Amino acid sequence: MIYPNNAADKLGFTEVKALIKALCLSDMGSQMVDKIQMMTNYDNINKFLRQTKEFKEILENDSPLPIRHLFDIKSLAEKIRVEGAFLLEGELQQVLLSLQTVFSVISYFNEREGRYPTLEALFEHLPIEKKIIRSIELIIDEKGKIRANASAELQNIVAGIAKAEQEARKKIDHIFKAAQNSGYTADGSLTIRDGRLCIPLLAENKRKVKGFVHDESASGQTVYLEPEEVFQLNNRVRDLEFDKRREIVRILVRLSDELRPYVPLFLAYHGLLTKLDFVRAKALFAIKTESQMPILINKAELKLVNARHPLLILALKKEGHTVVPLNITIDEEQRVIVVSGPNAGGKSVCMKTVGLIQIMVQAGLLVPVDEHSSVGIFKQVFADIGDDQSIESDLSTYSAHLSKMKYFVENAGGKTLILIDEFGTGTDPLFGGPIAEAVLEALNKKRIRGVVTTHYSNLKLYANATEGLENASMMFNNLEMQPMYILEIGKPGSSYAFEIAQKIGLPFHILNAAKAKIGTQQKKVDTLLVDLERDKKELLETRVAVDKQQKRVALLLQENEELKTFLDENRNSILKDAKKEAQSIILNANKLIENTISEIKETQADKESTVKLRQNLQQELKKHQVKEVASLKPVIDQELKHGDWVKLIDSETIGQVIDVAKDNVILAIGELRSVVKRKRVEKITKKEVPKEIRRSYSSQLAESFASFSPEIDVRGMRGEDAVYEIEKYLDKALMMGISTLKIIHGKGDGILRKLIRGYLSKYAQVSRIEDEHQDRGGDGITYVYL
């Protein structure tokens, strides 16, 4: 229940329904939108929400649902329910097209059995009676006309009409030519008058040809005469036409009698088409407002994460702006939120957002919130918004407010959501504030839930001291004197009356006079709130800076640990290799010395031979020395650039550098693109790369360059398939150093464009995205700069 009756209008729910109604394809779908109202049954709400969520999934990620024709077959079924009544040709065509749509839809879901369970339940146990379609198709053609062979009698009549018309035409042509040769005819050709084929004759010659005059021209100089010889033939045609009409009526009556037993099934088919149109419109509205299905809970509480007013989204989207999201929780501990803050700071929008989203969810509509939001179920929504003064009822503005407060106090309960804008205004603040506080106290005792906006200090103090009530304020940048539209729970806000007045340019002497007139205590409270706001803003900024610094320190520590581990692992490996190398050098040196001594002995210490052998020994030892130094030399961190060849340290895999990004290296390994840490690769010379790898890489690169087109067309693809193709396409472009790409996705409803651009925005190598020129495709084509 929503109270008062105009609360739905003031919260924007009526406008939401109008926008959904405009998205319907049929009158019956629009009529169903008119019946949308707030529900309180958990199962029904959950069912309607899931239906819309599943249809949204179809619109965004699946093939289009084959909804082509939606006619009101309920009225046609009611028509033939009466014995003797029959459907006309056009009405039968509407039934035929509607049934074809129903069967196509059922077939669509049968192919995806289990994927959309809530929508499948709409036609569960609904039979597909194709016999109905066959019966109608035997009688009605594609244009919605009776087939000439619908019955043997009709076929004979049609043939008789054609024959009689042919004879009449042949006869009148002969008479017309004879009259022309005699100079009796007027300008023009044969014409139809009163359904009869006539000859145009000059008025003075009308007695020279026997026949019946059916008409004459405006000037009276031309008469239109039906020759006597053709009269009987035309009568024959006229009689056959009457016979044809009677036979068509007989056929239509027979077919309607045949369809009469299926009237209950027609009504069921009508219900399915109506619900599909209705759910489709809700899903389209959800896409337009970027809405999701929140977590539905069977309690009188809510937790909105990044909530936005749907109507505000649509309004600001036209201007290229975005809505500042709202985060708010109402539960058993925090039942009523008392929102204060500056004028035009967003208090009313905050309250209306809560109210509208709650009503929309309980009406089975998806809402623009984070999917982790949770929304409960309230039995009543009471709202006091705006000025409801009434001359007829002799109610002033304040009297109207008090009338609502009386109703709220008498009828509210623990499952009532109460929304009050500018609580207590409309009368002397000296009395309005205490009355508002007393009403709030009475409502709080009933443990109601709600959002209240106010400027009254006594309500802020009451909320601060009372269990179940929580202060909140709309944040305000008091340096730039601009509202931030962010709700902050936990503290009241200043109205910034003097600051705003100063910004507007109110003279200082007036401001000073006003400050002198307000009470000292009130001035201190307001100044304290302003100072608190400023200090909290500075504290928040400091905290953000500290958090960033802590994250950076944690990252540096992690990198330091990784580097230490890497060095420890490599040190053990280097020492192990060095020991092996040293053992090998010693073994080779021993062998070399032994061989040298042996050769000296064999030459019997010949001086020249000894000198040569000593020189050879020194050269060999020098080589080993160089090798030893090289093996013990520390690994130098060589600079890498595009085109360099590298080898992975922990394997024999070889690749070529595409790009270097901070501590990461992007490699081309055959046809694959891989990203590895810089410390995991070492630079090698081109000679160390096997020829078959160089040759294979060069040929692949040449083939890729030759076959690569900087343009891809994904029109008609499903969202997932399109993204997959674009991902492969971007990888190739990066490997080949392409800087600009063109993606053709078409306009449509903009769903595919939004999905692709969302994916591209997360791609680190994409620098910017823009539309094609309007004359060459506009936002149906996306240019990507790498």
From TrEMBL:
Residues 575-627 form a coiled coil. The keyword Repeat does not apply. The keyword Nucleotide-binding applies. SMART domains: MUTSac, MUTSd, SMR. It comes from the Bacteria. Transmembrane segments: none annotated. Its EC number is 3.1.-.-, 3.6.4.-. Keywords: ATP-binding, Coiled coil, DNA-binding, Endonuclease, Hydrolase, Nuclease, Nucleotide-binding, RNA-binding, rRNA-binding. ATP binds at residues 341-348. Homodimer. Binds to stalled ribosomes, contacting rRNA. HAMAP family: MutS2. Belongs to the DNA mismatch repair MutS family. MutS2 subfamily. This is Endonuclease MutS2. It comes from Arcticibacter svalbardensis MN12-7. The gene is mutS2.
